Amino acid sequence: MPDQFYGTLPDGREIIVPVRRSSRCKKLILRSVNDGFEVVVPPRCSINDASIFFYDNLDWIARTIRKRQQYLQKHPPKEKIIPAEIFLPFTGERFPVLKVPQGVCWTGVRIEDGTLILSGQTESYEQCAGALRKWLIRHAETALLSHAENIAVNHGFTGLTKLRTGIQKRTWGTCSRNGVVTLNATLLLFTKALAEYVILHEFCHLTEMNHSARFWEKLESVYPGAKEAREALKSASELLPAWSFL
Length: 246
Prior knowledge:
The chain is an alpha/beta fold and 246 residues long. The protein has 6 helices and 11 strands. The chain has helices at 47-56, 58-74, 125-155, 192-204, 213-222, 226-237, and strands at 4-8, 14-21, 29-33, 36-41, 85-88, 93-101, 107-112, 115-120, 162-166, 173-175, 180-184. The chain is globular and about 60 Å long.
């Protein structure tokens, strides 16, 4: 099996797509991966069958590329900068950011007199952004989760077994069938009202593990205006700084 397939798109552009054989795969799969694509091949699949599959899907690749380009036109990449100040609307806190370069390979964050000190390898945007995300998670473990716990008690939600936080790439919160609720630490960058919508949304899943009419009725009963908040969340997410998400 070749490591790559080479093809020509309908507009004449050449494309190279990596090939990966997987023992767990049961059928040929063409996946969109980040800015590229990948062909996943199951065991015992012949080179000929995999090749035909790839060439039969060149039109799909072209359509997917166009959709990516259209999305980027509407949502241009955010500027990758480390801000001089971080404001958390959820708590109302403002933290000046000060870089203290050191001759080490790591980057860390600490708070001194209300200032976020970025120390270590501060010339690397990726390392600084990663350090700030870790700090945001630590801050959310107290500021966000304690507020969510109070909401659970005040509204009488049952079935909550664990409350945790982290930074997820595509979700603001999740609720598992065993009662584990995970809240995205970036909710600290939203207003408290909008973050509470997400919190209550996940808590409603403790009894309604779906998005049925009954779920939305329950959410509306604890958060009047849930439909409007859901729409506001879509636009608010566009305002998040680049450093805050994966």
